[in-house]
Amino acid sequence: MDGTVKVTFQPEGKAAHVLPGSLIIEAAARAGIIIETPCGGRGTCGKCRVIVQDGCSETTDTERGRLTADELAEGVRLACQAKVMADTSVTVPEASRFFEQRILASGEGGTSRLCPAVAKRAVELAEPTLEDPAADSDRLLASLDDDAIELDIGAVRQLGSAARGDGGQVTAVLHGHDLIAVEPGDTTAQCFGLAVDVGTTTVVGSLLDLATGHELGVASRTNPQVAHGDDVIARISHAGDAEGLAQLQGKITECLNDIIGELTATAGVSPDAIYQAVIAGNTTMNHLFLGIDPSHVALMPYPAVLRRGGVFAAVDLGVGIHPRGRVITLPNIAGFVGGDTVGVVLATRLLERDKPTLAVDIGTNGEMVLGTRHRMVCCSTAAGPAFEGARIRYGMRAAEGAIEQVRLGDDVEVSVIENVPPRGLCGSALISLVAALLQRGILESTGRLVPPDALPADLPEALRRRVVEHGGAWAFAVATEEESALDEAILLTQRDVRELQLAKGAIRAGIEILVHEFGIESGDIDCVLLAGGFGNFIRRGAALRIGLLPLIEHERIRFVGNAAIVGAKMALACNDYMHQAEEISRRTEYIELGALPEFQMRFADAMMFPEEG
Amino acid sequence: MDGTVKVTFQPEGKAAHVLPGSLIIEAAARAGIIIETPCGGRGTCGKCRVIVQDGCSETTDTERGRLTADELAEGVRLACQAKVMADTSVTVPEASRFFEQRILASGEGGTSRLCPAVAKRAVELAEPTLEDPAADSDRLLASLDDDAIELDIGAVRQLGSAARGDGGQVTAVLHGHDLIAVEPGDTTAQCFGLAVDVGTTTVVGSLLDLATGHELGVASRTNPQVAHGDDVIARISHAGDAEGLAQLQGKITECLNDIIGELTATAGVSPDAIYQAVIAGNTTMNHLFLGIDPSHVALMPYPAVLRRGGVFAAVDLGVGIHPRGRVITLPNIAGFVGGDTVGVVLATRLLERDKPTLAVDIGTNGEMVLGTRHRMVCCSTAAGPAFEGARIRYGMRAAEGAIEQVRLGDDVEVSVIENVPPRGLCGSALISLVAALLQRGILESTGRLVPPDALPADLPEALRRRVVEHGGAWAFAVATEEESALDEAILLTQRDVRELQLAKGAIRAGIEILVHEFGIESGDIDCVLLAGGFGNFIRRGAALRIGLLPLIEHERIRFVGNAAIVGAKMALACNDYMHQAEEISRRTEYIELGALPEFQMRFADAMMFPEEG
Lengths: 613, 613
Known about the structure:
The structure is a homodimer of 613-residue chains. With 613 residues, the first copy, chain A, is of the alpha/beta class. In chain A, 30% of the residues lie in helices and 24% in strands. In chain A, helix 11 packs across helix 16. The two termini of chain A are 26 Å apart. Chains A and B meet through helix 5, strand 9, helix 6, strand 16 and helix 10 of A and helix 5, strand 9, helix 6, strand 16 and helix 10 of B.
């Protein structure tokens, strides 16, 4: 129950507890920091430079091949090569970060990618005179030099006093061609945006400084709609009448406003200085947020009501940013593939790839997109919330006290979030545990836990003792009553294994269908990108061992973290990505697995574990 | 006090009481019906055909020259030639009406001018299938075949249920490219619009059927803001703090909603089926309606805050039409020349005229525009509300009991609205009375009422007896205590004459400045168009006699009624006019009279009455 090391990441000061020998990129992912590894962690691109003084494994030949002597002397390491061995502190420069690379790096031709739809322009208004008593609106619009500007009611009401508040110096706040506010003086430095990933289970908000592109903070909440069911089908059912719909809409809006309150208080920013929010959510979350009755999403043939992205005034949705600020929902693809998946595709740049790339976003549902710049196909499986800890006997979310990784040596070794006595298993622990049980012969490829009398002869006694009876079947005690923070042992039950088989089988079968539809073999997949907060915690070997993913080289599997919110941040920070989002939504072909006779067969196959890892 | 005739106009059944010998066009104007007379009432164009069986003067040679024998046999007359002699009923065909000619007549190339910004389109949605489970939004947008459509939050929320309400038959409600509503079934026949003239004193609303172009009703109210002052300066002063502004905004919105309530109840139309409202008001009324602090309009150099027209969601302004319907304010020209004047210019087609045309809108303020297609100049004078009956001892609005016209024969002859004993004088009575007093030598050209001992020797005794002493000066009793509905005589006082001199002097001086600025002589004015509810009631001879207008032939003076609301109706019924309104607003040059040293001199001159009519 001990033996994890603490890695603190700078400049944010976020820490992760990991098992010794974990790569820095893995530890960073657990702290929610995604380090860019375009080469897939082969150590060939050198993009994942970090600075670390001690507590790491020896410098490798690969690193010496990429880093200069000066860099090596300064403690620069490649995060995909260096392993943490002891408590340490790692500084991650902006240039190595996933989101920042997408936004802050110079675009082609050297232009910045920071080009939000919201723009502030400070201008000096000429004084009106008797000879030219031009209206305030004309004097402002003349200085903005944009013939297409439309005046929003908010701006119209502020114009007169703003124009006289600071000697004719005013700041126009534009969203595209809409003039949404006019402020006295030069307020260009105060321009913020909000990106939100509205997950079925978790809502994450990020506050961006749109003047610099920097992230000022991240806050998350459990989606309060969970009180009305843990998956989208339960939510849709609850929204079946107007009252239920209004209730769910009210809850998510409140949750958003709560997140906004935390982010703005922490950053010392006025909510009125947030002029744009970009919302990425699955189609049901998107519909509930907008107050759209999602009933039909649950009925054959499962059409979305709204595919397109929308632009709405914050006041019309009750979102507590600037009342005339704009709330933008990323477009959906289909009834069960939503704006969050569009965000993932955006963040992982599938639209720019020449070789088949598979993005898998595992949350309460599992959405998968396979594609290149030429074609993209996607599907969705009701993975169920097993990976988020639900429907698992001792399952829990990846929060304090959750076991997040399990190794089986002579006995069980676990890493626990916040390094406290464990309270349960989160999704990644489930996968690493099942992979290890398979490896050690404690679990059969059919998914049956091996009874004590049939366990491999060479299994250490400590492990052998952990196979216990539970409700008429066998279970594996990850933590005994003594090791656990509960008054009882933390078990993996036979039923839990079945839940995992259903969840991973559905995802794997979906991947197979996409590969088939795309006309390739799974070995042709150039790269698998694992997205979702959950994805960060999966060990690639474990994912391959349980058959969640087709058998490909480790290096081709990459973690991209909460790519949905990265996509939302990209669309927030650069309006070109908003257009790309619409293109992704329009072009991505949706495959309804329920319509395919072969899906059931593939699903049955995929529920089995591979014979050999 | 008797001797008026009642003329009832069909099909609306509106009646006017006029003195015998009045032209049908004059009687119609008093009933609020503007008959188009492109030839200026010379009887040469034949556009003013009406049908009347009896009670009129003999058919003239001019009429026999324009009308066929069949027409004559059917009772067709020219409204600019036929005079009413006895109670009668007159049918006014659409083709003879001012507004309908502008909207319902075929445009160039035979196209209809009915092309509102609001359009309803009924479409049949394909059923979604498993093979093509396209989103409701995609299926709708595909059938609308317009790539630029933006989804309004209202439409987004209705889409799902509408798409399933009536076998896939839905009606999309578009405002330009904004999809503002989606309704189940084919509701294209239910599409209404509202045009409103927000006057400082009177608010008039007109309900149009946008599917046919027909007017379904007109309703008016006194602007409830009058409780806070009778002119724009008093309103601006009241709006000086946020509370006062909110109060005035609330009052005008309430008034509008009251008018909407009456119009929709009478016509049997749901307020939710009104998708667009076009508001014409002077700059101050426009600002108060939008919640813009108009303080600066009253301060040198009197700039408007907002010149441009605006498009706002009804819900954002509290206007009780469809909540996502659009409220459009006609653009202003300057701080004291607003959207109502733009409406007048639109209705009178100044933009299409080759010869200098003068439009004069007399309300609480007097606005004047002189122009051709090549150039337009305008100005505004604080005519004061004298013409609306305010600041006149026995003044009143043109309502029941108001004397509206006065002739002096052997004694006083008056026509009274609704033919009841008189309660006061409205603006047109003031003008016709003063003109008659001048003509008969009871009033000097300086504006002095002649004392009884200096009256012309040939003045009939009945008239002579009406010059009475009042407050140390002379006055003229239009109605004696016995003739009046009050307990006292209705007098025109010396002070009243001075008020009229100030009002008409300001307008006339403004006209002179425009003529000078335009580089012409007043004799070069091709046509004078008198607008405003008040304009309908003025007799051209009287207007010329008191020097309100430059001395030109009667035929060049035309009445265009409440042209501001006609302009608003045109912009409502045809979006091309909305663009024209913006062009008018942008192109019309504003002359600030206060900035011109010569204005005061011209004003002093113009206060005098002409020596000879």
